[in-house]
Amino acid sequence: MIIDAENDLDKTRDSLCPQQGGFFDNLRLSVSSYYVFGTLAFAGRCTNIRAVGKPVTHHTRKSTQGAWMKDPLGIMGSETIFVMESYTGRDVLEEFENMAKFKAGITRKTYKLPYQWDGTGGVVYGQYLYYNRANTNFIVKFNLRSGKENAQIRISDYTPRKNTYGWGGYSGVDLAVDENGLWVLWGSTGNSYRLYASKINVQKNSITHTWSLDTEKMSSMGNAFVACGVVYCIDNYSSKSTTINFAYDTKTGKQWNPNIQFTNQYRYNSMVDYNPREKVLYAWDNTKLVTYPITFN
Ligand SMILES: [Ca+2]
Predict the structure, then answer these.
(1) What is its main location (predicted)?
(2) Is this structure's pTM higher than 0.85?
């Protein structure tokens, strides 16, 4: 896990310091040392979630379903907000400079993507957007800096539009970011329709490991996310009061029911994703864009 994180951070470093040379070599070395040390120090503090707080409402959009996020690496700016509104028939990603501009409806940039997306599982991670290409088993890796497709990552056993979270909406592919890098949580016709979790290597643009989890069926589940290498599943998307009723630690193979209270304030939670930089959950609940504070053990 730490090695993957370092690989991801290598990528980050490369994007920050792409040119070779005396000055940059020295800079790269010091940045590398910082990140390796920082990652190890950080990993030691990474623990299980004890509680999720009440949602904080930030903004309202037109669509019932969608995805919104910041880049958890901060490369695209620590305040920059990205929005993928709706779950189908769309191919435009919106970027806002900060929350004030977002609330004022002032778009900084829009990106025309090479393909439409399915679901609400897209994430920005560094200078790339990752999302499920509609009705395919491919994750598109789109370079926000160049405005071009960088790669497509195949989920070999995924059959499109055969399994989803409780709310439906082609939500069978759910990308997630944690302290260890990029993951994809997904459901297909295998594993008795329960959830799979796969780790993605963003340098090789491939899946390095897949876990078949012993969750409830994906269609009975509200949403899922990963924090500190632990996959967490929320029981329900529409009950105002629900629980995180499944946890699986990919580091140890341990599984348990953490029974953590979780509030779907607006009764239609179509997206929940962890931001490891801010240590909060981002969610899109029935047109309302909310965050949840998290308490770790
Ligand atoms: Ca999620």
Answers:
(1) secreted
(2) yes
* Contacts of 265 by beta carbon, 8 Å cutoff, 6+ apart: 54, 55, 57, 240, 285, 288, 290
The one-letter amino acid at 269: N
Q: What percent of the chain has pLDDT over 70?
A: 85
Ligand 1 centroid to Cα of residue 80, in Å, is 20
Q: How far is the CA of 294 from the centre of ligand 1 (A)?
A: 15
Cα(183) to centroid(ligand 1), Å: 10
State mean pLDDT over 16-20: 36
Average of pLDDT values for 252-266?
98
* Cα 97 to ligand 1 centre (Å): 24
* Cβ atoms of residues 202 and 181 within 8 Å: yes
Q: How is the chain split among helix, strand and coil, in percent rounded to 5?
A: 15, 45, 40
- Ligand 1 centroid distance, CA of 274 (Å): 8
Distance CA 114, CA 116 (A): 7
Contacts of residue 109, defined as CB under 8 A and 6 or more positions apart, other chains included, come to: 94, 95
Between residues 1 and 178, the one the model is more confident about: 178
